[in-house]
Amino acid sequence: MYIAIEGIDTAGKSTQIQKLKENFPDAIITKEPGATAIGKEIREIVLSAKAQSKKAEFLLFLADRAEHIKEVVEPNLDKMIISDRSAVSGVAYALIQGEISETAIVHLNRFATGGIYPQKVFLLKLTKEELEYRLSQKELDGIELRGSEYLLSIQDAIIKATELLNLELVTIDATNSIEDITKEILKNIE
Ligand SMILES: Nc1ncnc2c1ncn2[C@@H]1O[C@H](COP(=O)(O)OP(=O)(O)O)[C@@H](O)[C@H]1O
Ligand SMILES: Cc1cn([C@H]2C[C@H](O)[C@@H](COP(=O)(O)OP(=O)(O)O)O2)c(=O)[nH]c1=O
Predict the structure, then answer these.
(1) What is the Å distance from ligand 1's center to 104 Cα?
(2) Cα of 14 to ligand 1 centre, how many Å?
(3) Ligand 2 centroid distance, CA of 153 (Å)
(4) Where are the chain's structural domains?
(5) Interface ipTM > 0.90
(6) What percent of the chain lies above the pLDDT cut of 90?
(7) Which of 78, 93, 82, 87 is nearest to 115 (CA)?
(8) Taking a C-beta distance cutoff of 8 angstroms, is the pair 69, 36 a contact?
(9) Which NCBIfam families does this UniProt record tie to the protein (predicted)?
């Protein structure tokens, strides 16, 4: 089973992935961007926010995704694969950028993934207050510097992205305790 944990920056994705690792010691734990050798280089370029062109940025994420699917996901589809982000983030961030049409975003993601998508998507959903508090507690990267309104619009776009990709979505209140969130994810996997 291939599942993705989605949510905006600071929603608690890495925290939950760590917990799931304890529950599924044999699972393939992975992430986008940056799970492969090429992906690590792409991640550095793209998170430095140097790209002037939003299309270039989109295509860099897609290149990472194509490599990730080919190297990590496709060979392990018979195992439990738990991914921190997926094509859902790719579609959501691109929808908000507004420079690429919805149809092109979906088609290009299909091209990159070969139609391999998570069977279940968990959205860790944050409130504005909690997001602002968590952002204030960390050193921000290029994308996080765009601010809380921007990130909240991405959160809505994540829901829309799962609809466009026709994926099963489980929404979880990310302000709950770490333990309760893990329990809810596990309940929906088993
Ligand atoms: N359920 C939670 N309640 C309170 N704080 C949390 C919770 N989950 C994560 N955090 C904290 O929020 C911050 C961001 O979490 P992280 O897992 O790194 O998010 P992401 O991977 O989505 O960016 C960390 O400081 C983490 O300890
Ligand atoms: C996968 C993906 C991520 N992103 C963004 C979301 C994040 O801001 C960043 C990836 O960083 P990430 O490591 O997921 O950040 P965090 O752990 O703080 O959540 O790239 C896109 O813009 N497009 C994409 O296709």
Answers:
(1) 33
(2) 7
(3) 14
(4) 2-189
(5) yes
(6) 91
(7) 87
(8) no
(9) DTMP_kinase
CATH of domain 2-189: 3.40.50.300
Nearest ligand 2 atom to alpha carbon 8: 19
13 is in an annotated binding site: yes
> 145, exposed or middle or buried, with CB in 10 Å at 0-12, 13-18, 19+?
exposed
Ligand 2 site, residue 14, Cβ cutoff 6 A = yes
Hey, what amino acid is at 86?
Answer: S
Average pLDDT over all residues of the chain: 96
- Distance, CA 80 to ligand 2 centroid (Å)? 22
- Ligand 1 close to Cβ of residue 11 (< 6 A): yes
Nearest CA to ligand 1 atom 13: 10
What are 149-165's pLDDT values in tens digits? 999 999 999 999 999 99
Phi, psi of 167 (to 5 degrees): -110, 155
Cβ neighbors of 85 (< 8 A, separation 6 or more) are 4, 5, 6, 13, 31, 32, 33
